[in-house]
Amino acid sequence: MTQEFAPFSFDNSFVRELPECYERWQGARVPDPALVCFNLQLAESLGMDLTLAPDPRLPAFFAGMLPAQGSEPVALIYAGHQFGGFSPRLGDGRALLLGEVIDNQGQRKDIHLKGSGRTNFSRGGDGKAVLGPVLREYLMGEAMYALGIPTTRALAAMRTGENVHRDGIKPGAILVRVAASHIRVGTFEYFAARGEFEVVEQLVAYSLRRHYPQRQHDPLPAMSLLEEVSKAQAKLVAQWMGVGFIHGVMNTDNVTISGETIDYGPCAFMDRYDARTVFSSIDHQGRYAYGNQPGIARWNLARFAEALLPLLSTNEAEAQARAHGVLDAFAEDYTQAWLEVFAAKFGLVDTQDGDLDLFMDFLKLLGELNLDFTQAFRALSKSLIPGDDHGIVSLSGQDSASLESWLERWRLRLAGSSPDKVQQRLLANNPVYIPRNHLLQAALDAAESGDMMPFEQLLKLVSHPFTEQEGFQSFALPAPDDFGSFQTFCGT
Question: Which residues are identified as catalytic?
Answer without folding.
Answer: 253
